[in-house]
Amino acid sequence: YSTRILNLWESILKEEDHCLRVLKHISQRIIHDSISQETFYFSSNQNLKTTLNLKDNETSFLKWNTLNQSIHSARMGAWLSNQFNWSESQTELIVISSLLKDIGKIRQINVFKEKEESLSSLLQKYDSDHPSLGAAISSGFKIHPVKLPELISQHHERADRSGFPRQLTKKQLSRESSLLTILTKLTEYYTEIHVKQANKKHSGSQLWCEAISKVIKDSEEGQFDKAFTNNIAESLGFSWQSMDHFSKELSERMPYSNRKHALKPAHYEKTNGKKINPEKNNSQKKNKKIMTRNQKVKK
Question: What's the whole-model pTM score?
Answer without folding.
Answer: 0.78
